[in-house]
Amino acid sequence: MLTLAPYLAQLSAWPSSGRHILAQFDADSIVVYQAFRAEIAEEAVRLQRFGRGFSLGRMSWIKPNFLWMMYRSGWATKTDQEHVLAVRLRRAFFERLLGCAVRSTYHHEYWPSHEAWQDAVRSSDVRLQWDPDHDPSGNPVERRAIQLGMRGATLREYAGPAILEVVDMTDFVATQRVLARAPYAELTVPTESIFEPVVVRYAKSAREAWPPS
Fold first, then answer.
1. CA distances to 14, 68, 120, 143, 209 from 18, in Å
2. pTM for the full predicted model
């Protein structure tokens, strides 16, 4: 079960800039979000894992930040993103994603050559992006939000063994959508705080993307 709190009550506790993983988590789990068309989402909720409608043949992206998911899905109004799922994952699995993630774009300050980065991309099942976070109205803020893309064996693990719970957030999103305009006095969102990975040994690519400062 997800915990919820007023948006404005949480805003003052969130950093206004920098790269941060904002998420709902505990010692054993972390919540991430994805948006799908109805049949994929409904099947996942019923099975408590992803079923046949979920594509294992392409990169799939997860977002631990609820408002980042709301921005990307237009508060569940974009085509094929009308149903929002909260997926509670094993924390150890999420930590492992961070440990083997490779940035999705080449940065010369992190890699000796473009070819070296391409080799890392080919050898890893996980991509990492830091993108501008957004307020509830969709306006960009200085803070950066993380999203992680998965493929191959890692995606297959995500689709089933890594999942502890699948929650349909669609009705909740619909009730909050009409409140997602300034001054946000009545807007409620899942509680989130800064997630600090306990993994201390990272793959080279993840060290270059982490820590976020």
1. 11, 15, 25, 5, 13
2. 0.91
